[in-house]
């Protein structure tokens, strides 16, 4: 018990730069209070004193704002930063060296008894407000971004963002030492994401724009070939793709050609 507590306290120094000394951690960190009380409640639960364990867990929720069911299984060096609003369900299983931020829910999607809450591997980070739901597995080293909703299995070393959760970065078989070196250079991702985290929607739109540019170039090349052969391809009024914010001026530049094209199509 005391060895576990010592490890829980020491991991705070590694993951929270605001931590100054052990006394401050013991007295001012609700995440430490919650995990210490859970260790006791979990033992009572295992001994069959289920009502007493639930009662003490309710008191712990009043004191810390963190709700951990005494039936949940939690590994070593578990850290809850800030903590308010965290909910961990009865059949949740959390591995070693995991980190949760405020507002995280490890919840169920069924009223059926049995395994209905997530299982987290080792070194998992879940950002603020994220919801991980159902008896799914979040494998070792995964990162879940803030406010994501995850209902499917997350691969090892992957990063998931969005609603529903989508994998935006995924390990491709590189050695783990490479991952560790990259993580060391980037630093600790406090909320499960980095500042340059790719947005899947923006990525798809960028691919569409690249495709349109390519089609535009090919169309111009075809027109030049037709002109060189003495064939007049006719006037092309293709609106230029410009990097502008969505505004009335930008919209007006595109609206007229589109409306004319639509009118010609209807008349034909």
On the 0 to 100 scale, the average pLDDT is 78
Q: Could you tell me how far the N terminus lies from the C terminus, measured between alpha carbons in angstroms?
A: 81 Å
How large is the share of residues in beta strands? 5-15%
Give the count of structural domains: 2
CATH architecture of the largest domain: 3 Solenoid
Write the layout of secondary structure elements.
Elements: H1 2-15, H2 22-28, H3 30-46, H4 50-64, E1 67-68, E2 73-74, E3 79-80, E4 87-88, E5 93-94, E6 99-100, E7 105-107, E8 119-120, E9 125-126, E10 131-133, E11 137-138, E12 143-144, E13 149-150, E14 159-161, E15 166-169, H5 176-186, H6 200-228, H7 248-267
Describe the structure.
- Helices cover 42% and strands 13% of the residues.
- The chain is α/β, with parallel strands linked by helices.
- It has two domains: 2-196, 3 Solenoid (UDP N-Acetylglucosamine Acyltransferase, domain 1); 202-267, no CATH class.
- The strands form three sheets. It has a six-stranded mixed β-sheet with strand order 3-6-9-12-14-15. A five-stranded parallel β-sheet has the order 1-4-7-10-13. It has a four-stranded parallel β-sheet with strand order 2-5-8-11, with no helix packed on it.
- The protein is elongated, with a radius of gyration of 27 Å.
- Mean pLDDT is 78; it is low at 182-188, 243-251 and 264-268.
